[in-house]
Amino acid sequence: MMRSLLLLLPTLLLVGQVRSQWFGRMELYRSQQVFEDHPIESFMGYGFDHVVSERSSIGLDLLGSWSSLFSGGSGYRETSYLYVSDISYRPARAIVSLSLRSDFAFSDITDKHVYLGSTAGLTWARASVNILSMYDSNYNNISPGQLGLKAKTAESTILIPLGFRLGFRGGMDGGFADLYVGAGVNIGPDGLAANPLIPRGVALSSTFLQFGLAFAFGG
């Protein structure tokens, strides 16, 4: 019995060593749809990875969307709200995402490996509308204050993204690169009614495809 335990000791020490590994993580790029009219939403952020066993790991990421900061543009829409015939506006979006990951490696996790994982999290999405101009049917300018409205309004909500991920990681000798793709669903409302002058509101996507690249360091 003692001899068997001595033979197993190196293996137990290796498992213990693997389980003690923690990695800081920098998400350089992640594309994941949140708004229906913006299929490529770019995220950056930070997180960590923790190796649980020789084949499994868990992680947590906190990401923000930087592409939404530069996607303002302007919009034009005809409407029949009260006396307003048409409206010119500038939309803006903001997104913050917190996600928990659980991954299973198809080979030793300390070497280069392919993994399959599940993801779950919370996504805070905010849409705002800044009214630039409004006109009635005679093309007379109307201010939002004349209708008891604000020139800039906003609305936010929480989505619950659930999905799967397939990825490839490098060896875990002091750090690794993580390249992955994924897909899933966004559980939550269909859209945000950021302004009553825009009846269709801002639609939210019920599904998403995901692509990302991250680097981890530590171990």
Please, could you describe this protein's structure?
It is a single chain. With 219 residues, the chain is mainly β. It contains one helix and twelve strands; from the N terminus they run H-E-E-E-E-E-E-E-E-E-E-E-E. The longest helix is centred in the N-terminal third of the chain and has 18 residues. The radius of gyration is 24 Å and the shape is elongated. The N terminus is likely disordered.
Task: Please sum up the structure shown.
The protein has one helix at 2-19; strands at 22-32, 42-51, 56-65, 75-78, 86-105, 113-135, 141-142, 152-169, 175-187, 191-192, 202-203, 207-218. It has 219 residues and is mainly β.
Structural key phrases:
single chain, about 220 residues, mainly beta, 8-stranded antiparallel beta barrel, two-stranded antiparallel ribbon, 12 strands, disordered N terminus
Low-confidence stretches: 1-19
Give the proportion of residues in helices. Answer: under 10%
Strand content: over 45%
* Distance from first to last alpha carbon: 34 Å
Per DSSP E runs of 2 or more residues, the count of β-strands stands at 12
State Rg: 24 Å
**Secondary-structure-derived class:** mainly beta
Helix-strand pattern: HEEEEEEEEEEEE
Task: Count helical runs.
Answer: 1
Largest sheet: 8 strands, antiparallel, barrel
Mean pLDDT: 81
How are the strands of the biggest sheet laid out side by side? 1-2-3-5-6-8-9-12
Gross geometry:
elongated
